[in-house]
Write a structure and sequence with these properties.
The chain is an all-alpha fold and 210 residues long. It is built from eight helices and no strands.
């Protein structure tokens, strides 16, 4: 069933990226939330038996939709969007550890700590009053990547690999977004943020399977 939805997700995501590049705000207001809603539908169609894992991922997707709405508005609701996505990542962490617990891969942990440390060092002097919220968000994102890998390693189904791949794409998307927001903007940054974000959420949705 999910294969029939993926082309619609792709078309909606591409439409958002295209109209965003043309500064067609009215159309972006349609296609940005529509893409995330389609991804929520994709997650729903992944299973016929619902578990706490599914409900927590649904919760993460719903808060992601809320974050999408905050970030697309003309007024600066960046902090509100950051909080919404922070809650989304916490929901994903709970989902990925519901059946597997916390068993972190030490090498992945070291890599993520090094990566987060370098990124924070680059951003730090530009964060201002958002320093603490950004630190908290970076912590939640790092935990999400770690627990998604653990979920993949200990799950009984190969499609749980999508959760880890999605988490990595999420990290790439948020890294570009943070650099663009606080340091410097490039012409390619917005399309890259959106493309990697939609891939990330779609992969996480695909990982939901019995």
């Amino acid at each position: 069933m999910f294969n029939t939805l993926l082309p619609f997700i792709f078309i909606s995501a591409y439409s958002h990226i295209y109209f965003d590049s043309l500064k067609k705000d009215a159309l972006c207001y349609i296609f940005k939330p529509l893409t995330t809603i389609l991804i929520i539908c994709l997650a729903y169609l992944q299973t016929t038996t619902f578990t706490p894992v599914h409900y927590w991922v649904f919760g993460g997707l719903v808060f992601s939709l809320l974050g999408d709405i905050f970030l697309m508005l003309k007024k600066d609701y960046f902090l509100q969007g950051l909080i919404a996505f922070f809650i989304a990542h916490v929901a994903y962490v709970i989902a990925f550890t519901d059946t597997t617990g916390f068993e972190f891969n030490s090498w992945l942990l070291l890599f993520l700590l090094a990566y987060a440390g370098i990124l924070i060092a680059v951003l730090n002097k530009h964060l201002g009053k958002l320093r603490i919220p950004v630190y908290a968000y970076a912590t939640a994102l790092t935990l999400m990547v770690l627990t998604s890998y653990n979920f993949f390693q200990l799950s009984w189904h190969y499609m749980s690999l999508y959760a880890f791949v999605g988490a990595l794409f999420f990290m790439v998307s948020d890294s570009i977004l943070a650099y663009r927001r606080f340091v410097k903007e490039y012409a390619w940054s917005q399309p890259a943020i959106l493309a990697t974000y939609y891939i990330a959420q779609s992969m996480i949705a695909l990982s939901l399977t019995n």
